[in-house]
Amino acid sequence: MQQESREILNIEDLRVRFETEDGIVYAVNGVSLKLGYHRTLGLVGETGAGKTTTALAMLRLVPDPPGVVECKRLEIGGQDVRGMSVSKLEQVRGNEISMIFQDPMTALNPVFTVGEQIAESIEIHEHLGKAEALEKAGDMLEMVGIPRQRANEYPHQFSGGMKQRVVIAIALACNPKLLIADEPTTALDVTIQAQVLELMNELKEKYNTSMIMITHDLGIVAEVCDEVAVMYAGKIVEQGSLEEVFGKTLHPYTEGLFNSLPNIKNRTAKLKPIHGLMPDPTKIPQGCAFAPRCNYATEECRKVCPALKNMGGTHCVACSAYDRDPDFLIERRKKNG
Amino acid sequence: MKETKTETRASKIYKKRSTLEMAWRQLRRNKGAIIGLILLVIIIIAALIAPLLFDYNTDVVGMNVKERMKWPSGAHICGTDELGRDIFTRIIYGARYSLAVGLVAVLIALIVGVLLGSAAGYIGGVFENVVMRICDIFSSIPSVLMAIAVVSALGKSTINLMIAVGIASTAPFVRVARAAVLVVRDEEYVEAARAIGQPDWKIVMVHILPNCVSQIIVQATLRVGSAIISAAQLSFLGLGVPAPAPEWGSMLASGRLYIRDYSYMTLFPGIAIMITVLSLNLLGDGLRDALDPKLKR
Amino acid sequence: MYKYIIKRLLMLIPVLLGVAFVIFAIMNVAEGDPVYQVAGPDATQEQLEALRVEMGLNGSLLQRYFRYIGKLLQGDLGVSYISKMDVMKLYLQRLPNTLRLASLAMLVAVVISVPLGIVAAVNQNTWKDTLAMILALIGLSMPNFWLGLLLMLLFALKLGWFPSGGAEGFASVILPAVTVGVGLAALLTRTTRSSMLDVLRQDYLRTARAKGVSERKVIYHHALRNALIPIITIFGVQFSNVLGGSVLAETVFAWPGVGRLVVDAIDQRDIPTVTGALIMTTMLVTIVNLVVDIVYAYVDPRIKAQYTK
C-alpha cells in the first residue's frame, strides 16, 4: 500500500525445488526480476522452464509439502512478501497482485455462479456487503464484455473464451497493481485469443496495471510487452527491453526460439527446431544448462554455469561466449546487424 | 544357446511385464494388503487343518456339563460355552463355515452375475433393460431382508444360507460385468472378430471378459467379507447354519443370553469375525489400488 | 425440473410392482401349506378348501399376486396368521420406531464421518490420515450386531449409562443408533476422504487461493461444497443398508421396530406379516432413493441445468 518503492516487483535469487519420492526437482534455480509500475514483462520459455513455478512463488502459492521456496528478497509494492503473515498475505492476494491461469475450463468453481465468484473477491478486499459486491461484480462482467444478467449463471454455461473473461474479471475486480497472466490464451482458439489479448490490453491501460505475461508465444510478447525475460531450465538466460531482446538478440537459446517460428514469407522453408530436449529437472547439469543443444557451445560451457552479464542498457545475458570474446555475435545478429 | 551380452541386458530391461506381475509388485508395497494376505492365509490354513486337530463329535459339539460356563484359563483359552464346549476349538472349527459360506455365496453371485451382466451388456436392447431393472429391484431390497426372505422360503440349512447370501450379493456383479462389457463392446477388434464369424459367446469370453477380470477380482474379495458378515448376521438371528454347528454368529447369539454374567462368550467369536473380514478388506483394498491404473498415489 | 420429478415418480410404479412380485414369489415358495397351520389337525378337505379361499391361497401364483396387489392398493396387507391383527396396522405401529432409529443412526454417521474424512484428506498420508483410515476399516469389518453387544456390555450393563433394551425414553435409542451408525460412518469416512482428495486437486481451489480466500474458507466452502455431491449419492443408497442394520440392532436391543417384526414373524412362519413388512420396507427405500436423486439434481448445478431445459 505504500508507493515508496520504485518497482512493483522485486525478486532476488528465487530458488524453488520440489522434494518428491522420485527425486528432487529443481524447478527454479536463481531467478531475479524487477518490474516497474505500469510496465509489462514477458516471461518466455518452453514448457517446463519454470515460468509458472516462478509466478506461483511470487504469491507464495507453491504447494508446501513437496515445494521448498528460497529467495534473498521478494517484495511486492515495497512490502516483504517472504516473511509476511498468512493473513496479511491473503489480503495482498487478489488485491495488490492477482494471477490468472492457463486453463479456463478448470479455473472456476462449478457450484457457484459466476457473479458470486467475482463478488467474493470484492467482499473480501473491499469489505462490501454481498448485495453491493454483486452489483460491482455485474460492472466487472460488463467490462469484460459479458452482459451483466449472466452473473447468475454457472461456469459450465459459458464457452472457454468467456470463462477466461470471467477469470480476468475476477483478477481485476479489486484493481490490483500487478497482474500475472500464465499463458492466458494458450488453451483458446486463435480468434478468441486475439479478443482476449485485446481485452487485457484495454484493461491494462485503463487500470494502469503492471503485468507479467507468461507465454511461449513470441508473437504475443511482441504485441503486449515492454520488457522480456527468457527462461531456460529454471534460470533467466536473457533479459531486457522488447527492442533489445528482439532486435539485438544475444543468447543462442533466444535465437533458437526465433528460428523455430515458421516463416510466413517463405512457406516452403524447412522448420528449424532446436535439437534436443530441456534437461531433466532432477538432473540439472553442472555447466550451462543449454550447452548440449547450443550450436556455439565449447567445453568450458559444459563446466561452468554463466552468470547474467549486462551488455548495455537494461540488456543482460547469461552466456560465457560474451566473456571470452567481447565481439561475439550469434548468427541472427550477424544478419540483422 | 548363448545370447550375446547386450541381448540379455536389453531383454531384461524391456521385458514385457504382464498386468499380473505389475499388480503383484504394486501390491507388495502395500503393507496393509500384505498383512491382510498373511492373516487370510493363516485363517484358511486353520480352517483346513481343523478336522485333523479336533474331532468333531467330541471336541466341537460334544457336551461336557461339568465344564460349562468356565471363564478363560490355561485349559480353555477362550473359556467354555453353556454346554461345556471349548470355545477356542469351536472358533477354529467355525472358520470352516464362515469361509465356506462366504466363498460359495460369492461364487454363486459371481457366476450368475457375470453371466447376466455380460449378456445384458453385449445383447443390449430390451433384454439389457429388463435385466438392469430387475437388478435395481433386487438392490432396493436391503440385503439382510433379502437373505432373510430366501432362507425363510427355503428353510434353514447351510446350503440355503449360501444360496440366500449369494442371491443378495448378485447385483453388484451384474453391474460390474455390464459396465465392463459396455466399455469394450464397440471396439474395433470385437467387430473384427464378429466379421470373421466368431460366435457371440466366444467373443464375450475371449475378448471382452478378460478386460473386467481385475474389477471382478476386487469386487469378489470385498464381497466375501460382507458375505461372511451376512452369514453371521443370519446365524445370529437363528436363520443361518443350524445348531450345533460352531458358526461364529450363532455362538454370539448364545453368548448374548449370558452376556450379563459371562461376558467372555460375546468377545471371542466377534473378534474372529472381525479379523477375518478385516483381512479380506485389507486385501481387497490393496488389490483395487494395485489393479486400477488410474490410482497412482 | 417438475417434468423430471413426475417422470421418476411414474417410473417408480413398475419398480414397486416388481419388488412386490419378487418378494411375493419368494415367500410363496415356502414349504408347507399354511391352511394346516391355521385350521388345525382335524379339518376336513372342504373346510381346508374354504379356508384357502378365505385366506386368498387359491389359484395360481399370478392370480394370487394380482389379488394381493389389488388389496395392497387399498391399504390391506392381510392378516397375521398368529396374532390375527391387521398387518398394515402392525407395520405402521412399528414403523415410526424404526424411522427414529434409522434417522438418528444416519445423523450419528454423518456427524462422525464428514469431519473425520475431511481431516484425513487435508492431512493426507500423515498419522491423522492413517489413523482415520484404520478406524474406518475396523468399523467396516466389525459385524454391527457384535458392536451392539459390546456397547450394551460396556455402557448399559457395566456402566449403567443407558438402558439395555426397550424403547423407554430418549436414552434408549442412543445405543441402537450408534450400533447402526458406526458401520455407515466407516463407509462415509472413506467416501468423504476420497471425494475431498479429488476436489483438493482441482484448479479452481488455486484460483480461490490466488484471490486471497482464507485456507479455512477454501476447504470448508469451496472444496467441501463440491466434495459433498458424491457423498449425497452414497448416502441415499446407504439408507437401504441402514434399514438392514436396524434389523440386527432391533434384535440386540429389543427395539420395537419393523426389523424385529419381520424376524419374529419369520420365526413363527407368519407369512402375511413377513411379506407385507418386506414389501412396505422396500417401497420406503425406493421412495427415499428417489428423493435423494432429486436432491442431488438440485445440489449439482450441472445436473440441475440438464433437467430444467
| First and last CA, distance of chain B | 43 Å
Strand content of chain B: under 5%
N-to-C SSE series of chain B? HHHHHHHHHHHH
Mean residue pLDDT of chain B: 81
The assigned structural class of chain C equals mainly alpha
Instruction: Note the beta-strand portion of chain C.
Output: under 5%
Distance between the termini of chain C: 8 Å
Helix content of chain C: over 70%
User: Roughly how many Å is the radius of gyration of chain B?
Assistant: 24 Å
Alpha carbon gyration radius of chain C: 24 Å
Shape of chain B: elongated
Q: Please count the beta strands of chain C (DSSP E, at least 2 residues each).
A: 0
Number of helices of chain C: 13
- H and E string of chain C: HHHHHHHHHHHHH
**Gross morphology of chain C:** flat
- Percent helix of chain B, as a range, is over 70%
Q: Can you count the beta strands of chain B?
A: 0
What oligomeric state do these chains adopt?
A: heterotrimer
Count of helical segments of chain B? 12
Low-confidence stretches of chain C: none
Give a verbal description of the structure.
Chain A contains 13 helices and 13 strands. Chain A is an alpha/beta fold and 337 residues long. The longest helix of chain B has 37 residues, at 87-123. The model of chain B is unreliable at 6-16 (pLDDT under 50). Chains in contact: A-C, B-C. Chains B and C meet through helix 6, helix 7, helix 10, helix 11 and helix 12 of B and helix 1, helix 6, helix 7, helix 10 and helix 11 of C.
